[in-house]
Amino acid sequence: MGLAEVSGILWKERELLELLLFKLEEEQLVLASGRTRWLAHATREVEFVMEQIRTTELLRAVEVDAAAPELGLEPGPSLGAIAEAAPEPWGELFKSHRDAFLTLTAEIQDLADANRDLLHAGSRALRETLLGLDKPLDTYTARGKNTVESTGGSRAHFVDKAI
To answer: Which terminus, N or C, of the chain has the lesser number of Cβ atoms within 10 Å?
Structure first.
């Protein structure tokens, strides 16, 4: 167990974070297009990548704890502490990993927030549409006269009555 193993796991974790970012962008495209047919599939893919990230984080914790004594650190050190304690070129490499993680997690958070906003907006629009179906609907008769229907129902129902 050593710094090479820790670095290998960090590379794997970075790749998974980039994949998560990609999957969140896919999910956003599905949401923005309004084609919700694929939304469940896109969400499952995001959840699958999240599970892989959790597994990799566990492996990283084990490897870091094993490498910590080699650097004179207590178990469970932060990536910043490892970067400071590691000899070169490892120190610079771990700093690079840390910077990449900070950037990726900020991008992931922003995209996840945007997706959540899109989901809420879509849900609100659907709810408002469904509530609006029970309100009176202005229609026109075959003679062009404006009438206000007083009962609920679908727009197709109103069109039938107007003709």
So the answer is: C
SS3 assignment for 17-66: HHHHHHHHHHHHHHHHHCCHHHHHHHHHHHHHHHHHHHHHHHHHHHHHHH
d(CA 21, CA 29): 12
The residues near 127 (Cβ < 8 Å, ≥ 6 apart) are none
Tell me if 161 sits within 8 A of 149, measured CB to CB.
yes
Triad 33, 34, 35: Cα angle to 5°: 90
pLDDT at 137: 58
- Structure confidence at residue 15 (pLDDT): 98
* Nearest-angstrom CA–CA distance, 98 and 51: 21
What percentage of the chain carries pLDDT values higher than 70?
79
